[in-house]
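Onboarding guide, step 5: your first structure request.
Type a short instruction followed by the sequence, for example:

Predict the 3D structure of this protein.
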Amino acid sequence: MIKQLISNIKNKKSFLCVGLDTDIKKIPKFLLKYDDPVFEFNKRIIDKTKNYCIAYKPNFAFYEDSMDSLIKTVDYIKNENILVIADSKRGDIYNTFKLYAKSCFNTIGCEAMTVSPYMGTDVFSKVSKDYSNNFFIVLALTSNSGSNDFQLLKIGDKYLYEIVLDKFGKIENSKNQIMFVVGATNDIQKLKRIRKIIPENFLLIPGVGHQGGSLSDVCSELLNDNCGIIVSSSRSIIYCSDGTDFDLQAGEAAKNIQKEMESILISRNII
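The system replies with structure tokens like these:
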């Protein structure tokens, strides 16, 4: 799976993930005449952005009342050989977490899922062996102000998020199966420290675009020889327009980001 991801990044000259945070209250009104407006919106977004991204990330919070829309969306994406990340933030003890994994990977058909680290590494050590071709993306350092409550607690000479990175980075086959969520709006020194702790793991980076994160700052500190990052953008792509051309505008936004990413990958001799 990791080899396929790296290959797709190089072939598409992109490390963009489009977040499908599809809110029926925000989609263009003309779509409401369709039997499944959420899926219709997603399908059109996918059609116009699929050439510029290597992943899609449906946030499960937007689909709790429309799981059929989510499953249809995932099925539609899978025809395009693009990574599907379940932004589900699951976490529990082994006997229940394995059911979350089964739901995300087998029932819904995603290939990666975001997870909470709070239950410890033993859960993931067990489940990751059952799903050796899937990714688990561990919440590490987010961008919201509440991250100060726990993630930035100092334990000895380390922050809690650094301990999370260190422990999950040492799980067997970690570099091939474990990614980490790192918010783009964190300061440069934190980003440098993160790459020192986990030099090879891929990182999922939300916060570029609408939330104000800098793509150049993220890339300067977190890119590695295999690229090593997936940058997620949601609202700044999918909600570019509320008119009948919303999908065309989304495609242009994705294309502009991809072109910037291409220049960065070339400058770092990754492609």
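Each response can be followed by summary notes, for example: The mean pLDDT is 94.
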